[in-house]
Amino acid sequence: MKRRDFTTGLLLTAVAQSVRAQGPPQHHRIAIVCPAGSVAPISETGVSFYWAFFTELRRLGDVEGENLTVERYSGEGRPEGFADLGREVVNRKPDLIVAITPPIAKAVRAADDTIPIVFTSGDPIRAGLVTSLAHPGGNMTGVNVQVDFQIWGKRLQILKEAVPSISKVAYLDLRTYWQYDMEPLREPSQQLQISLVGMLLEESTPAEFRRVFAELAQDRPDAIMEGSDAALTAHLPLIVELVNKSRLPAIYAARDHAEAGGLMAYGADLGEVAQRMANDVHEILNGTQPGDIPIYRPTKFELVINLNAAKALGLTIPPALLATADEVIE
After folding, report:
1. What pLDDT is recorded for position 24?
2. Is the pLDDT of residue 274 over 60?
3. Nearest-angstrom CA–CA distance, 316 and 162
4. Residue of 139, 74, 131 whose CA lies nearest to 110
5. Do strands 96-100 and 117-121 pair parallel, antiparallel, or not at all (unpaired)?
6. Sheet order of strands, 68-74 included
7. Helices (H), the chain
8. Could you report the per-residue pLDDT of 160-211, keeping only the tens digit for each?
9. Whole-number Å distance between alpha carbons of 246 and 235
10. What is the per-residue pLDDT across 101-153, written as a single tens digit (0 to 9) for each?
């Protein structure tokens, strides 16, 4: 046998032994729990947030149907059932839980404080999830999707710039969060001489959305501002449909609403947020302790304006505001 052939044979044998020693890639199982709406958008072909999340996981080598199993759950917009849902998810013993919103994160942590949790939250310290962004500790980490509450005042300012005549804005929110969400809006609303009134949902269900929009006729505002909780944005198509039927200008928390026909959206780049969450999931599945991963704060924000929606309202968006938009849909 030639020496080269002999050496090649040794190398191939060594590689085969190494592969046998390593065994097949480890298979992981995660649960994704959202507070409301259908679980259908939680996929690589779903809304932009989940598209970015699953695309990043795939890039990192975590592929659903190959080495990753994904179980999907919804709280169906009813907070009184979150505790039972948390126990149901935990009893399935996933390797990791992705918890969308603080109430969901609290529900699964109350059921088990050892399974790693990656959450989304407006302010995780204020929500009582962690005591430090840099060192969350315990079994939790995640992303701070709001960064600070100035973004809420910024949305109100953009709405005023788009429609300078407005003086009364209806704020679409869950009654549970209304007082909490109003705090950062009191000062900017006073400065802009805007009266804020609540369009308050008892729960995040289609019937409740239809109820509050039906009541608009009794005390009609000049515009609508949507809260940013995922329990609301889970009903994106319905909200945009009802707002457009009301023929009122509105500003939303996520670009998907503008892409779906809403007038304007301003908020964090949720694609960036989703990618960061996917990275957290990947690190934890490969051995990193969640409490050692700092809470991520987004660095990119975007204003999207839909001129088709403006035209349908007979509204002319000021050129100065259009010039600040990251994207204009025509």
Report:
1. 54
2. yes
3. 8
4. 139
5. parallel
6. 68-74, 28-34, 96-100, 117-121, 140-144
7. 3-22, 48-60, 82-91, 102-111, 150-162, 178-191, 206-214, 230-233, 236-246, 255-259, 270-285, 307-313, 319-324
8. 999 999 999 999 999 988 887 888 888 999 999 999 999 999 999 999 999 9
9. 17
10. 999 999 999 999 999 999 999 889 888 999 999 999 999 999 988 666 678 88
Q: What are phi and psi of 120, to 5 degrees?
A: -110, 145
For 122-153, b/e burial (b = at least 16 CB within 10 A) is bbbeebebbeebeebebbbbbbbbbbebebbb
Q: Which amino acid is at 236?
A: L
Q: Please, which residues bridge with residue 265 across strands?
A: 252, 304
- Spell out the domains of the chain, with CATH numbers in brackets: 28-146+269-300 (3.40.50.2300), 150-267+302-329 (3.40.50.2300)
CA atoms within 13 A on the CB side of 182: 18
- Are 89 and 73 in contact by the 8 Å Cβ rule? The answer is yes
**Partners of residue 68 on adjacent β-strands:** 28, 64
Residue 209's closest CA among 169, 228, 177, 237? 237
Two structure tokens written together for 67: 């080495």
The burial of 45, by beta-carbon neighbours within 10 Å (0-12 exposed, 13-18 middle, 19 or more buried), is given as exposed
How far is it, in rounded angstroms, from Cα 168 to Cα 223? 7
